[in-house]
Specification:
The complex is a heterodimer of chains A (112) and B (112).
Chain A lengths: L3 E4 L2 E5 L4 E7 L6 E7 L6 E7 L4 E4 L2 E6 L4 E6 L8 E8 L6 E3 L3 E6 L1
Parallel strand pairs in A: 2-11
Antiparallel strand pairs in A: 1-3, 3-8, 4-5, 4-9, 6-7, 7-8, 9-10, 9-11
Chain B lengths: L3 E4 L2 E4 L5 E7 L5 E7 L5 E9 L2 E4 L6 E3 L9 E3 L8 E8 L7 E2 L3 E5 L1
Parallel strand pairs in B: 2-11
Antiparallel strand pairs in B: 1-3, 3-8, 4-5, 4-9, 5-6, 7-8, 9-10, 9-11
The chains are: A mainly beta (112), B mainly beta (112).
Chain lengths: 112, 112
């Protein structure tokens, strides 16, 4: 089955700096790669996703890149703000309903 | 739309007791999922369903059962509760495996 690794497990950045979180996956059949943000005590919420036919996607300060050959994808947050502090989860899935696997999460702290 | 709803919000069980965690969605989603999230950890898939009458095991199904008699409802049954089942349980739904999962607010379960 699919295995998703995520690094780093914790990340501290100064407000205004950029943050990068990287994930690798094992199943070459995976074709959908979402990123979820979970604030303390809250439910996970989708912040951005990318499909295998696209190499990069941006939404304001957030971007995701995908390298299918290397089986890795990354989340980039620019101009970080204190409200970006949360746990971020990557995930990978295919179309067949059996593989929707989350990474272990990255705790991002944005220091004022 | 209410989205994904879960009841109860909190519950304390004694070892050996049983209970059912309720989950409902009003978005007419085919796919529904149950996850558990232990403190400071990621999301582990317990069971999922691709439509009414169809369920399948995820990564950590032992000690749990599910049913999906309607599109809207996906209850999770705990039989013979054990301290290892102390966790936060999230229900989620999506159109299919390659689209955003919408999470419910979670049920915090403590087994003592």
């Amino acid at each position: 089955g699919e295995n998703v690794e995520q690094h780093p497990s914790t990340l501290s950045v100064q407000e205004g700096d950029s943050a990068v979180i990287k994930c690798t996956y094992s199943d070459s059949a995976s074709n959908y790669f979402p990123w979820y943000k979970q604030e303390l005590g809250k439910r996970p919420q989708l912040i951005i996703d990318i499909r295998s036919n696209v190499g990069e996607k941006k939404d304001q300060r957030i971007a995701v890149t995908l390298n299918k050959t290397a089986k890795h994808f990354s989340l980039h947050i620019t101009e970080t703000q204190p409200e970006d502090s949360a746990v971020y989860f990557c995930a990978a899935s295919d179309n067949y309903g059996q593989n929707f696997v989350f990474g272990p999460g990255t705790r991002l702290s944005v220091l004022p | 739309n209410a989205g994904v709803t879960q009841t109860p919000k909190f519950r304390i069980l004694k070892i050996g007791q049983s209970m059912t965690l309720q989950c409902a969605q009003d978005m007419n989603h085919n796919y529904m999922y149950w996850y558990r999230q232990d403190p400071g950890m990621g999301l582990k898939l317990i069971y999922y369903s691709v439509g009414a009458g169809i369920t399948d095991k995820g990564e950590v199904p032992n000690g749990y059962n599910v049913s999906r008699s309607t599109t809207e409802d996906f209850p999770l049954r705990l039989e013979l509760a054990a301290p290892s089942q102390t966790s936060v349980y999230f229900c989620a739904s999506s159109w299919d495996n390659s689209y955003e999962q919408y999470f419910g607010p979670g049920t915090r379960l403590t087994v003592t």
